[in-house]
Amino acid sequence: MATAKKKTTRKKSVTARKTAARKKSAVSRKKSAAKKKAISEKQRSLTARLRAELKASKELLRTANANAKAEIAQLKEKLAAALKREQELLKLSEKKAKMMLQAGERWEKAQLRKIQSVVKKKRRKSRA
Questions:
Q1: For residue 118, what pLDDT band results from cuts at 50, 70 and 90?
Q2: What's residue 50's pLDDT?
């Protein structure tokens, strides 16, 4: 009987240790679950904050891009107007130069006619 008592005592102590280990593991599982929940809450809040910041920065970039496109369009319009004005001024200057040349030629021809008429009169007088 002594050996039987030892076996039962041993079984009881092993069983007690196993149940204690189970309780301990259950408690640790609960703690780890609570920790995981707390960590996941932190991660969720961090993720949400980062997503919001990313969304805000993307929106900021979109508005900056839209502003840049609008400014580029405005500058293109100004450039086109400046080029058109330059072409018109170039045409005007060419036209003015052409008119001045024609006026100079007309004046030169008129002066030559005057000189020729004076010379013709002198020839007529000398012949007569």
A1: confident
A2: 96
Q: What is the pTM of this model?
A: 0.48
Place of tokens 């990313």: 54
Instruction: Assess whether pLDDT exceeds 70 at residue 28.
Output: no
Rg over alpha carbons for the chain, rounded to the nearest Å, is: 54
* CB-neighbour burial class of residue 49 (10 A; exposed 0-12, middle 13-18, buried 19+): exposed
Q: What span, in angstroms and rounded, lies between the C-alpha atoms of 99 and 101?
A: 5
Pair of tokens at residue 123? 């020839």
Predicted pLDDT at 1: 47
Indicate the length of the chain as a whole number.
128
Predicted confidence (pLDDT) at residue 49 exceeds the cutoff of 70: yes
- Rounded-to-integer distance, Cα 49 and Cα 77, Å: 42
User: CA 10 from chain center: how many Å?
Assistant: 78
- Rounded CA gap, 48 and 112, in Å? 95
- DSSP 8-class letter at 82: H
CA triple 117-122-124, angle to 5 deg: 95
- Provide the token pair at 57: 């920065």
